[in-house]
Amino acid sequence: MLKTFFHVLSVESLKFMRCRWSGVVCVLGVLGFALLALASVIAVVEPGSNIAIYLSLTEGMAREEKRKIVSKAMKISFFVLAFFAIAGQLVFQFFDITISAFQIAGGILLVDVALRMLHPRKGEYTREELEDIAVVPLAFPLTAGPGSITTVMLLMSQASAPVEWPFVFVAILVSVLLSYVGMTYADRLVSRLGTEGLHVVTKIMAIVVLAIAVQFLINGVTDVATHIIHP
Predict the structure, then answer these.
(1) Which of 3, 41, 142, 165 has fewest C-beta within 10 Å?
(2) What would the pLDDT profile of 103-154 be if each residue is shown by its tens digit?
(3) Radius of gyration of the chain (CA)
(4) Is 102 buried (19+), middle (13-18) or exposed (0-12) by CB count in 10 A?
């Protein structure tokens, strides 16, 4: 009788330890996914790299105009990334859109942006032009571009349980907030660079943006060619 009691006790203890260990593994898995999502989205969005481009595009604008542009661009970026995280796969399937097409479209838009940076206009900006800068290129394709859209879609598909889904949206929010803070306080960088320094940075970043545009186009065309050659 006593032997049976100790046998049952040992079996129940083993079950308890297994359940406890399984819970620890589950928590570690969720934390690992959260860190992966955060690191991936921030790395793809690259908040720091967009600051110089923002400075170049908003050169000569009033502070209040710049603040409106940043606010609108980051709101659009968050909602675009959140939308594609939720329904990106359905949208792509419904319209029969590929990532390659997205890359080519983003590349074409960035070519236009780079040319405007190389030959900036002088004078006041109209309301429509300010909105254009907020949407293209600050929101798309620099912040919510093909790379970041693809990343959030892949993260949602790789989530092993619904409990991991919110961490994708947390990663989106953190990356957008980092971009917002960086652009909001970018004027301090201007004061240190000076007018000539900012002019040089503008030209350099125009070349960088043009290079990014060309790379988007190359990646998109290469993917399309690969699918044609090897269907």
Answers:
(1) 3
(2) 788 788 778 777 777 776 555 555 565 567 888 888 988 889 888 888 898 8
(3) 24
(4) buried
Cα dihedral 145/147/152/155 (nearest 10):
180
Tally DSSP H helices, then E strands, for the chain. Answer: 8, 0
In the predicted model, residues of the chain with pLDDT beneath 50 are 2-3, 5-21, 23, 25
| pLDDT reported for residue 154 | 83
Which helix (H) or strand (E) segment holds residue 85: the answer is helix 63-95
Output the CA–CA distances (angstroms, integers) from residue 205 to 52, 56, 75, 167, 208, in the order listed.
7, 8, 24, 32, 5
Q: Are 139 and 151 in contact (CB under 8 A)?
A: no
* Residue 127: per-residue pLDDT: 56
Whole-Å CA distances, 94 to 22, 91, 97: 39, 5, 8
Contact 144, 102 (CB under 8 A): no
Contacts for 200 with CB less than 8 Å, ≥ 6 apart: none
Q: What is the per-residue pLDDT for 194?
A: 67
